[in-house]
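Lab notebook, bench 4. Still working through the backlog of constructs that have no structural model yet. Next entry is a single chain of 447 residues. Request: give me the structure tokens for it.
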Amino acid sequence: MDKKEVLDRLAGIVGPDYVTDEKFILMAYTQDFGVHPPQWPDFVVRPGSTEEISQILKLANELKIPVIPRGGGSAQEGGCLASRGGIVLETLRLNRILEIDEDTGTVTAEAGITFAKLMDILEQKGWKIGIAPSGALAGTLGAHISRPGVGWGNIKYVCQGDQVLGLKVVLPSGDVVCTGTAANPSADCFFRYGLGPDLTGLFIGSEGAYGIITEATLRMYPYPEEIYLERFTISNLREAIAIFREIAIHNLVCYIAVPVITPEKIIFDVNIEGDRDEVALWKEKVRNIILRHPGARSEGSEAPRKFWDYRWFNAGMEFKEGIAGAVNYFLPFDKLEEATYAMREIMERHGIKKYAQQMFVEPTGSEHVSLLFHYPGDKEEYEKIRRALDEMMEKALELGGAPYSKGRQWGAHLAEHLGGTGYWRLSKAIKRLLDPNNIMNPDVLGL
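Model written out:
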């Protein structure tokens, strides 16, 4: 590879101000927010349109150079890192809302827009989206769909993929594909299904292995008349999970967040939204479900309301303990207690100094989270965390867990655990068909 030739050709596509091979800039793209070892790209390019991304991928295919899409870099599993060098393609210049269609209740936006910007504009117009990640200040729409992400709203709105109606995607060949009803050149995107297979779903959760999302159309919802929050505590994990299951199955709240799980106390917040009469009814039902359990008590609304009002800033407060290795995956309700103690046993056996466990409930189970903290430069703790993470990911898959954000961290474990299945053979066949030169985010997901 003649690096000067590549740099010049990329500059011819995006302009010289938006591509670089300067080491001090490349360094900023060697890591995400997790503990994956640094990976150096050869180039960073910042396109401003779908058309420019198409040209970049055509060039990369011609020269067989890996391309790694990156949003805000706030994930923790190494999905945006250049494990084989190549081009990191940052999407942050694609940051516009293209259309707010109040007739169909949809919003179409570019993939690099942050959730903080998207939600701020929608809320000024009396609308909202369903799922918002806790890292909304940095998290981008395309990256969150590619994971597919969860966040505040898991019970009512489930996950990011459930609010997506259609996508615009650039394939590794440079071809541009529209999904949902927008696949019909005579239609806008207003419905996800109907013309054939659900190709939208092919790219949700694929983390850039099959192509780069450049636009997305989401459902919008009228901004609720009232948002009620209340914090509860209980000392019995099994009873807490029984509470979560009953509330979730009856779809009584927007979300339940369990920011702290310790043997002595489980703290959880409930968020109920709707018109005033609905909120009053659901609040009474939720409180009755919770408070009939011995040991459960209300801590009131003040603390969760303060958190909610400054949620985009408060969400990162836990990272004052350092950088975190993360093991995030979904489990059904009947596996959550076992998983909590199994993950804790592994972390304590490896001597992890600081860790946290959390749950974020969805309708049929919950995201289960373990965060293992260390400070930069503490190599001994870092090595302990790396060893613990490998064991924890194996245990999660053994329990039947489904990691929603896989990146490179989960890749080898997924390949080993799923390698003999038809699902894995199909996933690899699609990869070979769409990306025969393996340029698109190689090694992500273990593909």
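Notes after review: The chain has four domains: 3-92, 97-222, 226-314, 319-405. The chain has 15 helices and 18 strands. Flag for follow-up if needed.
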